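Hi V.,

You were right to ask for the full record rather than a summary. Here it is.
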Amino acid sequence: MTSPVAATSYMSGYELPWGEIMATGTLIVLPMVVFALAVSGRLVQGLTMGAVK
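Predicted structure:
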């Protein structure tokens, strides 16, 4: 089961458990945020090195 399917599987009828939906969303986004923070310094460094003649 993929992450978006797991997030929408909590919905049933007219009841929306917002706590579970938000927790799943946080777990889906957290690895991407950690990766972006870890790579951001190297990314900026690589972009600036390519711009200098």
